[in-house]
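Quick one:
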Amino acid sequence: MPVVLLSDRSVVSVSGTDARVFLQGLVTCDMDRVAPDAPAFGALLTPQGKILFDFFVVQTGEDFLLDAPRERAADLVKRLGFYRLRSKVQIEDLSSDARGDDALAVVALFGDEASAPADAIAYADPREASLGRRIILPRPAAEALATDAPALYEAHRIACGVPKGGLDFAYGDAFPHETNMDLLHGVAFDKGCYVGQEVVSRMQHRGLARKRVLKVEVEGDAPPGADIRAAGISVGALGGVLAGKGLATLRTDRLDEAKDAPLTADGARLRVLP
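Output:
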């Protein structure tokens, strides 16, 4: 059973009597369905419907923990604080280095025998069952528990076709549909209003999503963000690649136009995988 410390993740706490209602009016997932045994994958969008932050929401008691990208945690706390107004909520980065050994960390466990320590906050990855489980616990315990390199988890994530923000797509520049959030249980289309909801709903009901994240095989070297071209036209951008397998955001309509033309990115050859 691989056990990987996700050092690029932070844990942000949203607590207080208004926490659930506060988040319900902001995020793409349905907070009314979040329970201690029912985590959610969601995002906070711009008013124009683009992803600013994506995260997992985990309930602990009456509070909620957001498992979010570490490099975005401070901005997430600030943005949530902007919306707080008179809501009775407290927002805190529980992974801050200032907390010392009490800082929380995230570990991923996957494989046939993925089970978590009894005293940890554990939950199944709500995006894709094969991604296994995630656990939240103090950083020293997380470091002691981890047995495998981060590259092992990254290879598994890519094989599952699940994109990573900041690598496979740029925050502030992608709609949820373009990062497969609708396919990964990250958008509740039957909930009420949240920031950016009108744009996301319109894309869903009118079928306006032209970009999708797809798995690709890469022959050669090309950096994340490299322009992918076919028959002389740009059809998308390359995301992360590991051991010749990667993810790419591709314009499906332009792929259809290019038909069987080869895909290239900075001299590397690409093939879309099923």
